[in-house]
Design a protein that fits this description.
The structure holds two protein chains of two kinds. Chain A is an alpha+beta fold. Helix content of chain A is 29%, strand content 26%. Chain A folds into two domains: 2-165, Beta Barrel (OB fold (Dihydrolipoamide Acetyltransferase, E2P)); 200-399, Chloramphenicol acetyltransferase-like domain (Chloramphenicol Acetyltransferase, 2-Layer Sandwich), CATH 3.30.559.10. In chain A, strands 11, 14, 17, 19, 20, 21 and 22 form a seven-stranded mixed beta sheet that branches. In chain A, strands 7-2-4-5-18 form a five-stranded mixed beta sheet. Chain A is elongated and about 95 Å long. Chain B is 38% helix and 20% strand. The chains are: A alpha+beta, B alpha/beta. Chains A and B meet through helix 3 of A and loops of B.
């Protein structure tokens, strides 16, 4: 039996509120399937599972705050004997919300409340103690029926069932104003941490875009409007391609060390209508062709704004790209989203005077690409070579 | 096929003697008398005095001879009338048989099988009734098994003969007359066996206490307690995975062992459970062992001194708080 736990859906996330279960005990589930919708401070996220199996027991109830890492359900993995489902109703992780919403911290061996009665250590079987911890049952409120009055597994199970039987408070719909405040708070936390911890360095490069724009125009000829690929996709693909030679810009800085990521998942900064932004992952950009990337990007933007992202999309990005060209700025110098180590920014593509190789000046569409990178992992030399590689990639769009 | 435990052991011995000319049986009264428990009845006439060897009342001497014969290329089966007498031969079993592979740097192995009757219940008094299985289960270099079923009585000897290191087989005197149907008897000497699956408590036992545990489990079933009965089968090395697996499912454990509680095999089993699955326990483990007295001769006192089904039932009620 394996556990389905609440993953961290971002560096700053330490809890989430369960909105609804998408499965019931006994349902077969498959790797990649979303089992639950969890509200983080940023959005309602569908949380996937990463192995095949059958849902055993649901241990969290809608409306409940769940700490990151807590078991939300048990899954009987394929090939295992299923264990009998104790009760049809999901067991509640607990009513004592204040306790659950705290980040789990090591508890003292004996907290007076439930372990001692009149100075005598209360008898709780080891198995019951473990189960109470898992289900969030307060042992102080459980009476023991075991040997010498000990609290046993069945006592804890009964207490958990009683908790689950109590009417669950309706899930509060998070209103737009509250959501906006939460998003603002999440951004504040992440960006403050970034600026506090990450020694950024910034580089920029002006890149002529005539070839890329002309190539894309030719490519889009004959495509229906809905199939047309945006220049932003060409830029994303170029970033992924350029990163192939600079793995030290693609990955995570965790526990004092850099961990390169094997694939490029670009976090695409998407602004939200009510304010704020989210940067969910466009997966494995290097391996996909542009029409596919375009479809996935459209889907990602739509779902981000509808607040229905999947957990992996929030947790996965290995680098972020922010494109503020549509807003008309010349260049964008971003703040790295920890634990990532780099961010690429693009400004507006517009005709600007450009001195060509023969010395003549012409009006050519150009863009300013920038790199914000973590100086703990790379130096300006690496960053400069990366921007040059990006420049080259955008001169040969047909090779992307 | 229906047979008794005694017939199963006899058939296994007979097969071993027929199959391999290096095999011989040696012990007190195994030849002309036909075995203290009639295990080798008729063998003397069939196989002759060279292969069915009557030994003098000298355990140290004939057990040592068996060890030497094994080192010399024979496959002896040495019968010690009861484990109580085997204490005279402890030096040959513990210091010689168990250690020779080690002491000779792997040059010698000692492929000998020691068979010993063990246990009480037949009014044979203290000097013939004790259970010292754990003395041998303590020693690296020995494999120690306890056939508790008729199939294991039939199958464990041929399995033991396949080892090139010493194996000690404990046959409980209370089992010899047990009868049952035996279909498949081939077995390994590695794994414990679940003799009765259950969900509420694991009764872990071996040897002569198995029928008592099964009887207790039947009584408990009438009370609505579904007991699992685990037969250790192999006392060294213990099948710790099987023990833990059962306890993780039932969360309660009673260990039944005819040895005395202090320093018992039951203590080792409980210690292993505490080490490996403390957090799966829903009640303190209980042991049902012999009372710490010399096993009495008088029938009612002997019965009172030994683990009995009602004592097992009482222990299970304690851990289940029934």
């Amino acid at each position: 039996m394996r556990d389905y736990t609440l993953p961290s859906l971002g560096a700053d996330m330490d809890q989430g509120r369960l909105i609804e279960w998408l499965v019931q005990p006994g349902d077969p589930v498959h790797k990649g399937q979303a089992l639950a919708v969890v509200d983080t401070s940023k959005a309602a996220i569908e949380v996937e599972i990463w192995f095949d199996g059958v849902v055993g027991e649901l241990r969290a109830a809608p409306g409940q705050m769940i700490p990151v890492g807590a078991v939300m359900a048990t899954i009987v993995a394929s090939g295992e004997a299923p264990e009998p489902v104790a009760a049809a109703a999901p067991h509640s992780v607990g009513q004592a919300e204040t306790e659950l919403t705290e980040r789990p911290t090591p508890r003292p061996m004996a907290s007076a409340s439930h372990l001692e009665v009149g100075g005598v250590r209360r008898r709780v079987s080891p198995a019951a103690r473990k189960l109470a911890e898992e289900r969030g049952v307060d042992l102080a409120a459980v009476s023991g029926t075991g040997p010498l009055g000990a609290v046993t597994l069945s006592d804890v199970e009964q207490a958990a069932a009683e908790l689950a039987a109590r009417p669950t408070p309706p899930v509060e719909a998070v209103g737009p104003a509250e959501r906006q405040a939460l998003v603002r708070q999440a951004i504040a936390t992440a960006m403050s941490r970034s600026k506090r911890e990450i020694p950024h360095y910034y580089l920029s490069q002006t890149i002529p875009m005539a070839r890329a724009v002309d190539w894309l125009t030719a490519q889009n000829t004959g495509r229906s409007i809905s199939e047309r690929v945006l220049i932003a996709v060409v830029q994303l693909k170029a970033v992924a391609r350029a990163l192939a030679d600079f793995p030290q810009l693609n990955g995570f800085f965790i526990d004092g060390a850099f961990q390169p990521a094997p694939t490029v998942h670009i976090g695409v900064a998407i602004s939200l209508r009510q304010g704020g932004l989210v940067a969910p992952a466009l997966h494995d950009v290097a391996a996909k062709d542009m029409p596919q990337l375009m479809r996935e990007l459209s889907d990602l933007v739509a779902r981000t704004r509808a607040a229905s992202l999947r957990g992996s999309e929030l947790a996965d990005p290995t680098i972020t790209v922010t494109n503020l060209g549509d807003q008309g700025v010349e260049a964008a110098f971003g703040i790295i989203s920890p634990p990532q180590v780099a961010l690429v920014g693009f400004g507006r593509i517009a005709p600007r005077p450009w001195v060509s190789e023969d010395g003549t000046v012409a009006a050519v569409p150009t863009v300013t690409a920038s790199l914000a990178a973590d100086h703990r992992v790379t130096d300006g030399h690496t960053g400069a070579m990366f921007l040059t590689a990006l420049y080259d990639c955008l001169q040969r769009p047909e090779d992307l | 096929m229906r047979m008794s435990y005694r017939e199963a052991v006899r058939e296994a011995l007979h097969e071993a003697l027929v199959r391999d000319p290096r095999v011989f049986l040696m012990g007190e009264d195994v030849g002309r008398y036909g075995g203290s428990y009639a295990m080798s009845k008729g063998f003397y006439d069939e196989f002759g005095p060279d292969r069915i060897r009557d030994a003098p009342l000298s355990e140290l001497g004939f057990v040592g001879a068996g060890v030497g014969a094994a080192m010399g290329g024979m496959r002896p089966i040495v019968e010690v009338m009861t484990v109580n007498f085997s204490l005279l031969a402890l030096d040959q079993i513990v210091n010689m048989a168990a250690l020779y592979r080690h002491m000779s740097g792997g040059q010698f192995s000692v492929p000998v099988v020691f068979r010993m009757a063990t246990g009480a219940g037949r009014q044979l008094a203290a000097q013939h009734s004790h259970s010292f299985e754990n003395w041998y289960a303590h020693v690296p270099g020995l494999r120690v098994v306890a056939p508790a079923t008729i199939a294991d009585a039939r199958g464990m000897l041929p399995a033991a003969m396949a080892y090139s290191d010493p194996v000690v087989i404990f046959e409980h005197v209370g089992l010899y007359n047990a009868e049952g149907d035996v279909e498949e008897w081939r077995c390994d000497l590695e794994h414990a066996a679940i003799r009765r699956p259950g969900t509420d408590v694991s009764i872990i036992t071996y040897g002569g206490s198995l029928p008592k545990a099964l009887s207790a489990a039947d009584s408990l079933a009438a009370e609505g307690i579904d007991a699992e009965v685990v037969d250790l089968r192999v006392l060294r090395p213990l099948d710790r995975a099987a023990i833990a697996d059962s306890v993780r499912r039932t969360h309660r454990v009673v260990v039944v062992d005819e040895g005395w509680r202090t320093g018992s095999l039951a203590g080792e089993v409980v210690a292993g459970i505490a080490e490996e699955c403390l957090y799966d326990l829903d009640a303190p483990p209980r042991r049902v062992c012999s009372e710490e007295v010399p096993i009495p001769y008088a029938k009612h006192l002997e019965e009172a001194a030994l683990p009995q089904p009602d004592k097992i039932v009482a222990a299970v009620r304690e851990v289940t708080n029934a």
